[in-house]
Structures are given as C-alpha cells and as structure tokens.
Amino acid sequence: MRVSKKQAAENREALLQAANRLFRQRGIDGVGVAEIAYEAGLTHGALYAHFPSKEALAAEAFSHGFAGNMANTKAWAREQDRSFEEHLGGLISTHMRDDWEAGCPMAASASEIGRQGGALSASFTNVFEQFVEMIEGSLENAIPPARKRRLAIAAVAAEIGAIATARAVAKTDSALADEVLEAVREIICAAYKIEKARAE
Amino acid sequence: MRVSKKQAAENREALLQAANRLFRQRGIDGVGVAEIAYEAGLTHGALYAHFPSKEALAAEAFSHGFAGNMANTKAWAREQDRSFEEHLGGLISTHMRDDWEAGCPMAASASEIGRQGGALSASFTNVFEQFVEMIEGSLENAIPPARKRRLAIAAVAAEIGAIATARAVAKTDSALADEVLEAVREIICAAYKIEKARAE
What we know:
2 copies of one chain form a homodimer. Chain A is globular, with a radius of gyration of 19 Å. The mean pLDDT of chain A is 92. The first copy, chain A, has a domain at 62-199: Orthogonal Bundle (Tetracycline Repressor, domain 2). In chain A, helix 1 crosses helix 2 (33-39) and helix 8 (118-136) crosses helix 9 (145-170). Chain A is built from 10 helices and no strands. The first copy, chain A, has 200 residues and is an all-alpha fold.
C-alpha cells in the first residue's frame, strides 16, 4: 500500500506521541515497540519504516516530548517577565510530580538514560542544554555569564532529583514527597541569593 | 531435594546480590527473574521459594544493596570526623557517577521507583530516611534540628539528580558531566553556609 507524504508525516507524529506518552508512563525498558505501534494505530512494520530501532525512536520521542514542554513553558514565561523563583515554583511543583505524562521528560527517565545508547544520551544532553539556557535567561543580569550557567546547571540537575525522589517516596509518605520539593527549591534559592549578593 | 537452613540462607543471599547487581546495571524493568536466578546459580523455582514476586525481590534487593553502601560510608566516616563537605565530596563524585555497581542505589533507579509498586517505594523511602539521618549527623550542631533535616533532605535529593544527570550526559559530553557534579555540590554548600551563618 502506497502511503502519501502527508499520511507518512501523520504516522510519524502518531508514533512519536505514543512513544513519548508510554515511555514517560512506563519507562524505556518497560515498553516494547509492538505496543507503541499498536497505540499509534499502526503496524510493527510501519514503525520500522520510520525508525530503524527502538533506541532511534526513543531518542527522537524524547526530544519531541521535550519540545512540547518547552513550548508550554515559553508561552507561560511570555505572559509576563517570570523570575527565576517563579520558574522554580513551576518546575519543582506537586503538579509536575503528579503528572507523569505532561511533566519533565528528563525527570521521568533520568536514571534510565545512562544505561541506554549514545543516541539517547545525545538527545538528553541537547534537551538539558536548552533547559539550562532558558533558566539562565531568568537570572539577574548582573550575575556574570559563567556563574549564571553554573547556577542554571545545578538548578536543572537538582530539579530532576527532586521530582524523581518525590515520585519515588510519594506512595509511602506524601508529606515527605512534598518536603523534598520544598527543600530543593530552598537550597537553589539560597544559592541564587548568594550569587546576587556577590554580583551587586 | 531438601535444602538445609544454611544452604537456604546462602541461596537467598546469592539471589539478593545477583538482583542488586543486575538491577543497578540494567534497571528494574531491564532484567527478568529467570536471569537473576541464573546469575545466582539457582533455578527459577528456587527464586520463588524465597520471594513471592519480582517486586518483593526488587524491594529487598534495594534495601540489601543500600545496607552495603551504608556500611562502607559509615566505616569511612568513623576513620575520622567527616564534615558535611567531605560527605558531599564522596557522594557527588566522578567515582560514584562511573561505578554503577558500587554507586548509590537511589541514584541508579530513582526515576524507575515511582512507576513500581508500593513495596519498592517503601524500600526507597526507608533508605532515603537512613541517608538523610546520616547526613544530618555531619551538620554543625548549632543548626536547629528542623533546619538540619530540611538541608539533609535537599542534599540527598539533589545528589540523586546530580548523579543521574551526570550519567545521562556522560556519553555525549564528559566535561558537562563533571560540571553537573561540581555545580550541584556548590549550591548545597552555599545553602549550608547560609544555615551556619543563621545559627551563629
């Protein structure tokens, strides 16, 4: 059966969306390609016509899912000039913790990526750098660029730890899950205060 | 075949060690029970004689593996009175990042635990609390207990994020992988400085 260009693009999009949703919910090793194809309403063969391997699909799904999060965050930041603290409040939140599908894809799979191949690491790194750049943009101008970058790197890595840890303890101790988020926000804000004082 | 009590205990230990090693290397969803039994030199049936389910085995393997890390850390801390900064230097290190088998089991599986059942969450939470308690013990006495706990919670969650993130980017950008560790150590130390200054 011949597939039109338009249909092929739609199939590709459906595969990326299904992969992204399933990987965030169940992890990369927790989902097979047959299931992703089924979820997208396509055959196994159709999937391999678009992606040579599960890893290639996972790497592209990761970037694709993140692009959606990034677009939402940028739209939110455009509504008004958002401070660094407001960014943290949005990122390290009970909402992000409880919504696996719409939450941060890095937090959803951080501990799995290192075990996967180079394509997923490259995709994760690219997404991490984009996020760091966005956070840098929310920091006080007076802070020197190298210090901005350093703080943004720490904030994103700590956010990933906060969300993953809060999710891991949530079924057992919901008060602790909340406290993890607050505690991590606090240390990042404390470090920011020191950077601002230094730059003045 | 009748198995002596001593043999049963040895089999159980072999299963826990094999599970712990394989889960850290490949993730909980990346390893099957048949493989764990094989690695321990036992049959599938022998595994189920000790653990009713993969989750039960994973939960116990998690605590068991952590107990080993904890014993090592406590032995190291007993050699001399280790400061909070020394603990951080050991925990958030290239050594911990590069050694999956001996590294922190929480960092190795943080983003996977939230997807698993209650037994693994309970095991993770228990381990997290033990770790927090150890870190609290390394903080300056003058800091009020509630603030010590808050800082220790943040430090452990941020450590988990630092190691998982550094591993995720390491195949692509080893300089960034190092910088993630340094940046996270820096913000935790900055927050500690503020707590110490407040307590004086």
